[in-house]
Design brief:
Number of helices: 19
Strand content: 15-25%
Radius of gyration: 25 Å
Distance between the termini: 35 Å
Helix content: 40-55%
Oligomer: single chain
Shape: globular
Structural class: alpha/beta
């Protein structure tokens, strides 16, 4: 039998402390979600509703199939910046008329839905996910265009949005735009380059230049409707493919359009879904608040995979990395999970072989992060840690089966790379509130910086201020600790969402389902591994 046997005690002090720390982090996360749901604030929402309009999340809720989930992605984009959290858009994966789609909705309650630099980054990430997984792209448009004070950061990279729509069309990935309000200036090309366009009577306004700009440029006096209203585009210009009476009618028409896209899944179908044998609630107490304290990742795996069934690969070799085969919501997956944090040569070689096998078998890979990096020291350098770590990173880089990454604890140094961090293009990357990611731990990094400063002063024969150095050490620790936290990293769009550990199985299942829109294939080719 390959069913995991849990040894987790939910009554011991370690579990209780870890659970309390996680609960506190989830409470903070909940407050951030409350802020997101408020959009531009109570007054902006009230004005929006007074105009007879729905906020973006309500539009999405009506659009997706009843009683189906919406997997919101990158919700905290812009956190910690001068821009509003969420970056003026709501995006994620939802099922419309039985078809999984990427849905991207402007939030007009936040500065009129205008695009700032973080809007641009988030939009491009959402489109990247849609393109890689061949998900139809549905845009719910209501935007005043670029946030003009930030145009130097928006205008030039913004062209990638329009190029992307052309690439979607070329690749045969459908695009649908529902225009709920303004789509002006360059923003008019968003609907204009979509395969299907729905416009709403007296609401949709799509034009390159509004009445004030037209008057200033040409002297012509005109109105919104004759320049870009839904009636004009439906009857005269032909830009509108479907003419809706109101928002509910537009959503109905959008659902009809998606139902006729003739999209069929080409990837694996889920088989024999069985719930785990252990409670998801127990995931809250597995990762200690102090990430230096080790924990067994099998306890996580047992509460995430189908039937808690995990066929472990090389269990007695390279024990700081757990590898094996499982299913999540019926989808086959290979799992690599850090056990004791440090990666040695044995772990690197084990991972390389496992990744090659997964590519041979066309099986997606899930990387569960809790690593401080590759081992250092004379013994390990002489033993080939550089070439073995390079081998693992090479394998991850060359692997062409879909990757998912889940950060549950530490994710430091080159270990972050070897475990398929953001720069290695996993299809999806999520973090638990307990996760931290940086070049190294805050305390270690501060030690390195201050030790180098002290050695430099000694080499130059100049006095060294130990008191000032201690203050500098503390400041560095605080800075790195703050920059290692999940919300900060999520704000930078270095992950696709900070998730409640109890939602892990659901989130991974939805992600694997999206991945299965296209066939799982590997070219099974690699470069030269240094032996």
């Amino acid at each position: 039998m390959t069913v995991l046997t849990s040894t987790l005690s939910t009554t011991d002090d370690g579990f209780t402390a870890a659970r309390a720390a996680m609960d506190a982090k989830l409470e903070e996360l909940g407050r951030e979600f409350d802020t997101l749901r408020q959009g531009g604030g109570e007054k902006a929402l009230a004005r929006h509703r007074k105009r007879g309009k729905m906020p973006p999340r309500e539009r999405i809720e009506k659009l997706v199939d009843r009683d189906t989930p919406f997997l919101e992605l990158c919700p905290f984009a812009g956190w910690g910046t001068r821009f509003q959290v969420g970056a003026s858009i709501v995006g994620g994966i939802g099922t419309i008329s039985g078809v999984e789609c990427m849905i991207v909705a402007n939030d007009p309650t936040v500065r009129g839905g205008t695009s700032n630099p973080w809007t641009m980054r988030k939009t491009l990430r959402l489109k990247e996910i849609a393109y890689e997984n061949r998900l139809p792209l549905v845009s719910l448009v209501e935007s005043g265009g670029a946030d003009l004070p930030t145009q130097k950061e928006v205008f030039i990279p913004g062209g990638a949005n329009f190029r992307g729509l052309a690439e979607f069309s070329k690749a045969g990935i459908p695009t649908v735009a529902v225009v709920f309000g303004n789509a002006t200036a360059g923003g008019a090309y968003g609907p204009g380059m979509s395969d299907h366009i729905v416009m709403i009577d007296q609401r949709s306004k799509v034009f390159l230049g509004g009445p004030p700009l037209v008057k200033a440029a040409t002297g012509e006096i005109s109105d919104d409707e004759s320049l870009g209203g839904a009636q004009m585009h439906a009857r005269v210009s032909g830009l509108a493919d479907h003419f809706a009476q109101d928002e509910d009618d537009a959503i109905r028409l959008c659902r009809d359009v998606v139902a006729r896209l003739n999209v069929a899944k080409a990837g694996p179908r889920p088989d024999g879904v069985v719930e785990p044998r252990y409670a998801e609630e127990e995931l809250l107490g597995i990762v200690p608040e102090d990430l230096k304290v080790p924990f067994d990742p099998r306890e996580i795996i047992a509460r995430v995979v189908d039937d808690s069934d995990f066929d472990e690969f090389k269990p007695l070799y390279g024990s700081s990395l757990v590898t094996g085969w499982a299913r999540i919501h019926g989808y086959p997956v290979g799992i690599l999970a850090n056990a004791q944090g440090v990666l040695f040569s044995e772990e690197a070689q084990k991972a390389t072989q496992f990744i090659q096998i997964a590519n041979r078998q066309n099986t997606p890979l899930l990387f569960v992060h809790n690593t401080t990096g590759y081992m250092v020291g004379a013994e390990y350098e002489q033993g080939g840690i550089i070439k073995h770590g390079s081998m693992m990173i090479h394998a991850v880089s060359s692997s062409t089966v879909p990757h998912l990454s889940l950060l549950v604890g530490a994710s430091y140094g080159a270990g972050h790379y070897g475990m398929c961090g953001r720069a290695f293009n996993p299809r999806f990357l999520y973090a638990w509130p307990s996760a931290k990611s940086a070049v190294m731990g805050a305390e270690q990094l501060a030690d390195v910086v201050t030790s180098v400063a002290k050695a430099s002063a000694a080499d130059r024969g100049i006095p060294f201020d130990d008191e000032a150095n201690d203050a500098r050490r503390l400041a560095i620790e605080e800075q790195i600790d703050a920059e290692s936290m999940p919300l900060f990293l999520s704000g930078q769009i270095y992950d696709d969402g900070v998730i409640d550990p109890r939602d892990t199985r659901t989130v991974l299942g939805l992600s694997l389902s999206a991945i299965a829109t296209t066939a799982i294939e590997s070219d099974r080719s690699y470069g030269i591994f240094r032996m």
